């Protein structure tokens, strides 16, 4: 029995208190690093979340990077790691009107004929906006005021080109006047949908909000 104890003590001679302390210290240091990395990551995530929420609900325009242009109807942007879809505020685009109309209705057909004859108008946003470029974006009612050309918003540009219409009951005092002027310009010049009298063919769908 005594020999067994002695042999056990002998075989563990290399495991000194100092080496044990070093192992414990190394483990503590490793755990400490993991903890701080985790805390740091959480701090970054919380900070980004906080910044993005301020940006989304702020009245002032926010800088965002254009990731892709799907159509005149909507574009994809990002702020940091957060990506979002931007739809033009206060207007109904021809693409939206096409979706809203009944299948094979005179409204749908008129829009399809218009885009076939005017492909540049169909891809107006793609030609205007530059991917990976930074733009000022202001969030309004889950939509965007995208300043696509200086102080001109995408909504205003689409109205002026006759590629969109003012939505019903639009009462935003900040934009109501400029949007109305832009639509009247297209109407007077007979450009876009006014040239083809699409608004007349799509009247039933303009009188409903959904």
List the helices and strands and how they pair.
Blueprint: H1 2-11, H2 17-57, E1 62-69, E2 75-79, E3 82-86, E4 91-93, H3 94-100, H4 106-117, H5 119-122, H6 124-128, E5 134-140, E6 143-149, E7 152-153, H7 154-160, E8 164-166, H8 176-189, H9 198-201, H10 203-206
Antiparallel strand pairs: 1-2, 1-5, 2-3, 4-8, 5-6, 6-7
Helix pairs in contact: 3-4, 7-8
Descriptive report:
Helix 3 runs antiparallel to helix 4 (106-117) and helix 7 (154-160) runs parallel beside helix 8 (176-189). Strands 3-2-1-5-6-7 form a 6-stranded antiparallel β-sheet. It has a two-stranded antiparallel ribbon with strand order 4-8. It is built from 10 helices and 8 strands. Residues 1-17, 43-52 and 54-58 have low confidence and may be disordered. The longest helix is centred in the first third of the chain and has 41 residues, at 17-57. With 210 residues, the chain is of the alpha+beta class.
Can you give me a brief rundown of this structure?
The protein is of the alpha+beta class and 210 residues long. The protein has helices spanning 2-11, 17-57, 94-100, 106-117, 119-122, 124-128, 154-160, 176-189, 198-201, 203-206, and strands at residues 62-69, 75-79, 82-86, 91-93, 134-140, 143-149, 152-153, 164-166.
């Amino acid at each position: 029995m005594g020999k067994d104890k002695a042999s056990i003590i002998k075989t563990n001679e290399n495991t000194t208190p100092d080496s044990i302390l070093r192992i414990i210290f190394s483990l503590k240091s490793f755990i400490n690093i993991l903890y701080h990395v985790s805390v740091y990551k959480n701090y970054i995530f919380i900070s980004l979340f906080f910044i993005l929420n301020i940006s989304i609900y702020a009245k002032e325009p926010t800088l965002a990077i254009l990731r892709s242009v799907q159509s005149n109807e909507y574009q994809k942007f990002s702020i940091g790691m957060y990506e979002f879809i931007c739809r033009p505020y206060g207007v109904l685009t021809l693409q939206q009107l096409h979706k809203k109309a009944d299948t094979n209705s005179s409204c749908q057909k008129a829009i399809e004929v218009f885009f076939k004859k005017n492909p540049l108008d169909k891809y107006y946003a793609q030609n205007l906006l530059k991917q990976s470029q930074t733009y000022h974006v202001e969030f309004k009612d889950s939509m965007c005021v995208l300043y696509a050309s200086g102080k001109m918003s995408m909504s205003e540009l689409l109205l002026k080109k006759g590629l969109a219409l003012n939505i019903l009951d639009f009462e935003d005092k900040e934009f109501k006047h400029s949007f109305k002027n832009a639509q009247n310009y297209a109407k007077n010049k007979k450009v876009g949908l006014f040239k083809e009298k699409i608004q007349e063919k799509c009247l039933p769908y303009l009188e409903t909000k959904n």
